Amino acid sequence: MRLRPNSIWSKAIVVMALVWFVVVIVAYYAVHKPLGLAQINALSDLALILLGWLSAVALANLLGWAVFRKFPNLASAERLSLQIGLGFGIIATGGLALGLAGAASEWLLWALLLLPLPISLYRLRRDLRELRRPSNRWLAIFVGLALVLIVIRALAPPTAWDSLVYHLTGPKIYQEAGRIHHDIDLAYLGFPKVGSMLFLLGLQLAGPELAQLFHATFFVMTVVLTSGLVRTAAPGRGWLAVAILVAVPSGALLAGWAYVDWIAAFAGLASYILIRAWDSEKIDRVLILASFYAALALNTKYTSVWLVMGLSLVVLLRGRSIRRWGAFLLGTAVFVAPFLLTNLMLTGNPVYPFFLDGIYWDDHRAFWFGRFGTGLSLPELFAAPWEASIWGIEGGFYEGHASYGATVGPLLLALIPLVALRLVLDRSARQGSVGDLVVVAGVAYLGWLIQLSSSNLLIQSRLLLPALPFLAALAAIGFDTVGQVGRRGASVRFVIGGVVAFILALTATRMAFDTAQEQPLQVTLGTESEEDYLVRRLGYHYQAMQEINRLVGEPKVRFLWEPRSYYCREGLLCEPDALLDRWWHDRKHYSTVEDIRRRWVADGVTHVLFYRDGAAAVRAAGFDPLDEPDWEALDRFLEQELVQIRALGNAYVLYEIRQ
What we know:
The chain has 659 residues and is mainly alpha-helical. The chain has three domains: 34 residues; 456 residues, no CATH class; 119 residues, Rossmann fold. 66% of the residues lie in helices and 4% in strands. The chain is built from 32 helices and five strands. It has a five-stranded mixed beta sheet. Strand 4 and strand 5 form a beta hairpin. Helix 2 crosses helix 5. The longest helix has 33 residues. The mean pLDDT is 91.
């Protein structure tokens, strides 16, 4: 029997075949579910994060393009990074205004991002098409692998220390209040606010993972700009400079955290690139734009002041004009002013918490926070580069050596001194880009040494991170210079190049293993719950937060020796011991433990979280000015004035305060 194509039987058979196919597929996946509810929720969250990131980057690029379209003499990759960075600076400033007015709602922010999305995506796509392929495949593979691992980490829930202390806690407090304020004793809220505003945007759009992704984006933009630093001084070594930058382990690690270091580094680097462009074209509006980025660095991190001082010195040396130098400084001051005025309005001190008194601040806290006179001696300062490079380690220290709190790798220390050969062999280099790089990096390095000599609390390699792109560029120039010293120099450079390649391979392997050990993809893809991930990564700290979050009503929990409070639930008022000085400070103001309890009750405190391990570590270190009577008073306070509710191992104890 032959069926006609258009007969009713043919049509019925086709329909039955389709129905049968659908029934089988639906029945199969009803039994064999491809994704569980947890995975569906995780992928939905991931999609929202990526949408928020893409929308924000596209809008930032559109805002920046409106300015940079008038500056044709820039490489396409540099232009794109500068545009996005400028746009994010504008967004942060606008976010500050909306936050102060209490108008930064989630719906408004999404509307501001999505309404221009067709135009902003079109602009971003056009700019991306202009990018060129990398000139060095193997170094590009190393950098690309590192960036992928950084993004993977950024998409996991936050666990980094400073993120949980203030980088994310501040924006979370603003989000819950619906406005920017300083109504809680958290001194770090007075720090520069560009990072906080971008992280607040991330929290409101999708969550803390988006905030971390914003910081990773600035790292990528810094990488792009770094490649151009050696274009004239060491042609063809741009990717080497980038690889050296990425190979700084602690720098790459915190790129995926909600920190602000790479925002400051990008801003300083962007300002330098525009200063160089101004020097070649002598167009004053380029210099004013450079001052905007210098202000962006200051509005991100106080310690960027050394980098900005170096930049201003380059302007003075290049322009040979007090008028243009003054214009650069004035432009920087104008762009910094909104953030300084915000601090003045909220705290009574434009550079809170430094130099002047302000809310929650007095001479006792200033002493505690500064601890001036406890820094390194002169011989130790001379040894600082060696100590920081060889003995510095992320999150720890080696016995008998100062803790620089970071792993910087060997390449900077090994290669930067070779730049001296360039300055000796080529006198013109002193007047060119090499000299400018030395000036900026040198002033930043001098500022770092001043901080090291001032206080034990400032012995941190991370304080030099805003200058890291300049140091990486100098390292690449040092490598290139060796090959210019005759045949033997070329042979030595070949050997050094092989060792550098081996170090990069080791670095990539270590980064991959560290990421695999943390297993961030499990929580990102929903195969591990966020709660289990945080318990695994934070241990007793997250369990303590869970215990606090179970308290009914709207209690007020005051912390002792625990500065992290990000994971306190909404509606629960947590007061972190951000400077670890709460007990010492109250002992200075109140004579008895009963007086302290009465003061806390008057403040509305209902519970106390005591980080026992933190207090024990401080006591063992013996650096903080707490004496035996202070510790004995603490024991009496815990025993007589509080009622224990729950102990979490030997780490934390949750108390209820006697009313």
